[in-house]
Amino acid sequence: MSENGPYPPELEALCDALINSDCDSAVKSRLFNILNNWEESKGFKLCESNKDLVRSLIELFLLNNPSVSKQVNLVLTECLEFEEMPEGPPTAIFDGSTLELIRQKVMPAFKDNLESTKDTEILEHWNLCVKLLGKHLHSGAGLINGLMTVVEKAFKLADGVVIEAAFRSWMVLMNNFSLSPHILNSSKRVKLLTRPLQVNNAKTEST
């Protein structure tokens, strides 16, 4: 499918950003096949063979363009609903380099944007990442620590709307860990997961 469109109006900003991105041409072509036929496709299957599509979309969060980010969220949310995944998305949709991209670039960008704009839409994108990462968050500390910096920053902001959204995001994280209930038997993991709630603003909001 050509990059020339026409594009679905609800995905126009995303398609424009994709045209100008430096992602692999074959990956770009596959994405345009999906996006130009959005009414029929409504997403794609989350599986190892589509991991490059997932990465290319997540990279667009780094443009810090609210319209593009919102449309990336729309597409990947549809992918989460493309088929039932009671155990969460397959871990094979992320390789090591994409996990590092999320930890080292995407999460710091979310944190900085949240601090400067107080836009709760950023927490919606964070929620999406938590859902996509699934069981990747159940082992090790580097990735989960990277994600926690964003919601911790949200709790520290003196803004009631942001703090309320932060509580909702924290619940998304709890739902993620319900995929592996035995993880919550680890005192270290429980301490890590409850750390955002120790922020003064969070404690004040909950009383």
How would you explain this protein's 3D organization?
The protein is mostly helical and 207 residues long. The chain is built from 11 helices and no strands. The protein has helices at 12-19, 25-35, 38-41, 51-59, 66-80, 96-117, 121-133, 142-156, 160-177, 187-194, 200-206. Helix 8 runs antiparallel to helix 9. The longest helix has 22 residues, at 96-117.
Topology:
Elements: H1 12-19, H2 25-35, H3 38-41, H4 51-59, H5 66-80, H6 96-117, H7 121-133, H8 142-156, H9 160-177, H10 187-194, H11 200-206
Keywords:
0% strand, 63% helix, 11 helices, globular, 207 residues, mainly alpha
Which regions are unreliable across 5 or more consecutive residues at pLDDT < 50?
none
Radius of gyration: 17 Å
Strand content: under 5%
Number of strands: 0
The helix-strand sequence is: HHHHHHHHHHH
Distance from first to last alpha carbon = 55 Å
Helix content: 55-70%
- Give me the number of helical elements: 11
Mean pLDDT: 90
Structural class: mainly alpha
Shape: globular
Task: Give the biggest beta sheet.
Answer: none
Concise synopsis of the structure shown:
The chain is 63% helix and 0% strand.
